[in-house]
């Protein structure tokens, strides 16, 4: 009997040790284990080797908290009551747009994810629909489709996070990704909207071309205006300086004239005549001596003489004549003939 009692005790001890050993478990990296005691939340443990009271006292559930999860919002299912898709939403100016996007999220609190919401994924979808309808409802159709389209995602993400935090779902929204063609008008007005969009693009292109033309023309116009201003300033300075110099020269001449009027008058007359006759082709001759010759075309005569000399020089070559010193003096007979011809023409002209 004593041996049987010892054997039974050993069996019970071994069974107890085995039962207690079932409480050991391992939590992988990126996971959290939620321990419940008799179905009620007890604690949350992180990655590593852990122990809890064996079943049925305590249980644990492993949750991936770093895994990025995704859910699509905006389905193409048509609602019979309205005839529109579930993705259709009303804008501020009472137009309809369709939006499709994907929500990426991860768990921030494993306990809240398990015990605060019956359907956490459904809560994410409902929060996303609520947020996007509120954001789009504050936009006009043109803004939602073009100008403020890039602002929809960050606004929806911020509003979604506020809603989920309010309900303590234990979810962190990582990002909102609009799908290709995610924001679009209904199919009934798609063609008209495409025409409007093309017109807007043409307007932007024309505006950019005009701006580029302005950027090219305006600097050149400014440069030309600056150059004209500098030229005008230089002309002004030159004229003023010239006027001041003329005035100063007149004053100096006036001083000399007051000292010797006749001498100054004669000198001014001679200077004026010299300046005038230096630029004329006619020479005036005094006719008081009874001569009928009023002017001599000296410039024409000189020109004709030069032309005849040049023509003769091309025909007759120079002749070398030795002088008394034994050197060769080159006497050009062409010059003699040219002078004779010039004299003959002068006689004929007279």
UniProtKB/TrEMBL annotation:
It is a single-pass membrane protein. Residues 320-335 have a biased composition (Polar residues). Residues 22-197 form the Band domain. Gene3D superfamilies: Band 7 domain. The keyword Ubl conjugation does not apply. Residues 336-350 have a biased composition (Basic and acidic residues). HflC and HflK could encode or regulate a protease. NCBIfam families: hflK. Keywords: Hydrolase, Membrane, Protease, Transmembrane, Transmembrane helix. It is found in: Membrane. HflC and HflK may interact to form a multimeric complex. Residues 320-350 are annotated as: Disordered. One of its GO terms (molecular function) is peptidase activity. This is Protein HflK. PANTHER family: MODULATOR OF FTSH PROTEASE HFLK, STOMATIN-LIKE PROTEIN 2, MITOCHONDRIAL. Pfam families: Band_7 (PF01145). One of its GO terms (biological process) is proteolysis. Belongs to the band 7/mec-2 family. HflK subfamily. The chain crosses the membrane at residues 6-27.
């Amino acid at each position: 009997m004593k041996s049987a009692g010892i054997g039974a005790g050993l069996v019970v001890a071994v069974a107890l040790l085995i039962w207690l050993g079932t409480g050991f478990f391992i939590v992988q990296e990126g996971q959290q284990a939620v321990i419940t005691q008799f179905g009620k939340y007890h604690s949350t443990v992180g990655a590593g080797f852990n122990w809890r009271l064996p079943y049925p006292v305590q249980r644990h559930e492993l949750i991936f908290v770093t895994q990025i999860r995704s859910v699509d919002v905006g389905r193409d299912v048509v609602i019979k009551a309205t005839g529109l898709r579930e993705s259709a939403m009303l804008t501020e100016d009472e137009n309809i747009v369709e939006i499709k996007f994907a929500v990426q999220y991860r768990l921030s609190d494993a306990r809240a994810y398990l015990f605060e919401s019956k359907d956490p994924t459904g809560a994410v979808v409902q929060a996303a629909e609520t947020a996007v309808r509120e954001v789009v409802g504050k936009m006009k159709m043109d803004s939602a489709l073009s100008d403020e389209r890039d602002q929809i995602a960050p606004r929806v993400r911020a509003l979604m996070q506020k809603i989920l935090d309010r309900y303590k779902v234990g979810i962190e929204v990582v990002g909102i990704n609009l799908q290709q063609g995610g924001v679009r008008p209904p199919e009934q007005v798609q063609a008209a909207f495409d025409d409007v969009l093309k017109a807007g693009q043409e307007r932007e292109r024309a505006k950019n071309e005009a701006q580029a033309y302005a950027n090219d023309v305006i600097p050149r116009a400014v440069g030309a205006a600056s150059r004209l201003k500098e030229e005008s300033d230089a002309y002004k300075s030159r004229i003023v300086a010239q006027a001041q110099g003329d005035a100063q020269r007149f004053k100096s001449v006036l001083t000399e004239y007051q000292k010797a009027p006749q001498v100054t008058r004669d000198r001014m007359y001679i200077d004026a005549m010299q300046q005038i006759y230096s630029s004329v082709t006619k020479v005036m001759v005094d006719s008081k001596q009874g001569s009928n010759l009023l002017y001599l075309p000296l410039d024409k005569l000189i020109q004709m003489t030069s032309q005849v000399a040049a023509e003769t020089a091309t025909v007759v070559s120079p002749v070398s004549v030795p002088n008394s010193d034994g050197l060769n003096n080159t006497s050009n007979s062409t010059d003699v003939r040219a002078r004779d011809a010039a004299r003959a023409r002068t006689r004929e002209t007279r």
